[in-house]
Amino acid sequence: MTKMTDEKFLLLDESYFPVVVGIAGGTANSGTDIFDVAEVETITPLSSTECKQSPKASFMDNVKTTWTALMK
User: Fold this and answer.
1) Angle, to 10 degrees, between the axis of helix 59-71 and the axis of helix 37-53?
2) Does the structure show a pLDDT above 90 at 70?
3) Closest among 67, 65, 55, 66 to 9, alpha carbons compared
4) 54 Ramachandran zone, left/alpha/beta (phi>0; psi -120 to 50)
C-alpha cells in the first residue's frame, strides 16, 4: 500500500474506499494515530476528490495530508 498511487485507489470498488483509507491512515501515521469511524467517513470523500485531481500522486501522502488538514 505504501507505493499505491491515487490512480490505483480510484480503480478499487468504492465500497472498499473507507477500509483502504482507514488502513492507510494507520500506516501513514506509523500506527500512532488510529482513525475512528467518523474520521474515516470524513476523510474518505476528501481523499477521493484529491485522488481525482492528482492521479499520479502517492495515495499515502494524500491520506496523511488530508488527515492533518482535518485535524487542524
Assistant:
1) 130
2) no
3) 55
4) beta
- The span from the CA of 39 to the CA of 52, in Å, is 20
Q: Which residues pair with 5 in a beta bridge?
A: 58
The tens digit of pLDDT for each residue in 40-62 reads 888 899 999 999 999 999 999 99
DSSP for 5-72? BHHHHHHS-GGGHHHHHHHHHHHHTTTSSPPPHHHHHHHHHHHHHHHHH-TTSBHHHHHHHHHHHHH-
CB within 8 Å of 53: residues ≥ 6 apart: none
Cα atoms in the 13 Å half-sphere on the side-chain side of 62: 31
Is the predicted pLDDT of residue 31 greater than 60, yes or no?
no
